[in-house]
Each structure stands twice: as structure tokens, then as C-alpha cells.
Amino acid sequence: MNEWIELFSLALPFMLQGAAYTLMFAALAMLLGLPLGFIVAVVRVARVPVLTQLATFYVSVMRGTPLLVQVFVIYYGLPSVGIELGPVVSGVLALTLNVAAYLSESLRGGIAGVSRGQWEAAFSLGLSWLQSMRYIIAPQALRLAVPALSNSLISLIKDTSLVSVITVAELMLVTKEVIAQTFQPLPLYLAAAAIYWVLSASFERLQKWLEARLELAHRR
Questions:
Q1: HSE (CB half, 13 Å, CA atoms) of 57?
Q2: How many Cβ atoms from other residues are within 10 Å of residue 117's Cβ?
Q3: How many helices (H) and strands (E) would you count in the chain?
Q4: SS3 content of the chain, % helix, strand, coil (to 5)
Q5: pTM here?
Q6: Distances in Å between the alpha carbon of 187 and those of 12, 49, 76, 170?
Q7: Tell me: the pLDDT tens digits for 146-199?
Q8: Are 170 and 160 contacting, i.e. CB atoms less than 8 angstroms apart?
Q9: Residues 178, 179, 181, 183: is their CA dihedral positive or negative?
Q10: Dmax (CA) of the chain
Q11: What domains are defined for the chain?
């Protein structure tokens, strides 16, 4: 046991640094993926010719292929057509495109959950379709979609481990590097799992707090 404690004390600073990168990747992908997902959802709801088919195809491809394959295509495949991106940019791009597809479905479901009467009330006030979406429908859809959006964020935190394959120094790659030096895989992998769990549990608490605040605001 003393050996494990000493091992953790040596490895923890490096693993926490990797966890910081994990949070950075998750936050960037979520901040970029949310507006992209919203645009995709709106295009599909509005049924814009051609764009709707393209958006549907995009969602199908992103949800129907493994994230690891998407990372490889962007980092290793794009250079063959003259597009060369660094590991950090490639990782953020892959995570963003992937999570945006899932977020778009959550938001589309939220939009569908808003009653038709809300649309009719907005149109009766003279609002256009886009104005109705912006001021009336989208805020309500966002409230309905919060649980699904939070689940996507929690999954995104765990999915960041896949970008370690392109030498991005997030939590999993740092853990592997420490294991290569200490030859102690079990305690270090358990420590990494504990850090992922703490991060996920923290966002679960945030999700519940946000749901309560939005529900209170809705009742008012």
C-alpha cells in the first residue's frame, strides 16, 4: 500500500496536467459543437432543400462511424489531399464534428418537443420563422434538451481519451507514459479511471443544478 501511495504522489501532478488538457479538449469541442449542432438541427427542422439532405448525411456519417476512425481520417488521411493539421487541431476538429452530430439530434428533439401552439402564437405576433425560432422556440428547446446535451458532454470527456492515439498529451496518454516508466499499470489505470469519474460526476452535478434553475425560471 505504501508503494501505491508513493506512486500516486509521483504520478498525480502529471495526470492532473493531462486531466486539464482533457477538460480543455472537451470544453473547446462543446463550445464549437453546440452552435454547429444547432445550425444542423435548424436546417433539418426547416427542411431546406439540398442543405437538409447534406445535414442528414453528415449526422448519419458522424454517428455511424467510430470516433477513432474519424480522428485517423483527419490526422492521417487529410495530408494525402494537401490538408495537414497538427495533433491538437485535428483532435479538437474530430471531437467537434462528432459531438455536433449528437448535439444536433438532441436539439432537434427539443425543438420537436415544443408545442405547435408556440409556433402559432409567434406567427400571430408577426414574427418570421427565424425570429420565432430565435426568441420563442430555441429557448424552450434548449431547456428540454439539457439532459441530453449534458450526457453528450459527459461522453465527450471520456471520448477525449481517443485523441491520445495522435500524441495529444491528455489524461490517457500521460497515464500511458507514466506506466511506461514505472511498470505499474493497475494502480495508474485505476487512478485515471477515478479522475474520469470525478470529472463526469462533477458535470452530472452541474447538469442537475442547471435543470433545476431552468425549471424554476420556466415556472415563473
A1: 5
A2: 8
A3: 9, 0
A4: 90, 0, 10
A5: 0.88
A6: 12, 55, 33, 18
A7: 888 888 888 999 899 888 888 787 889 899 999 998 888 999 999 999 999 999
A8: yes
A9: positive
A10: 72
A11: 2-219 (1.10.3720.10)
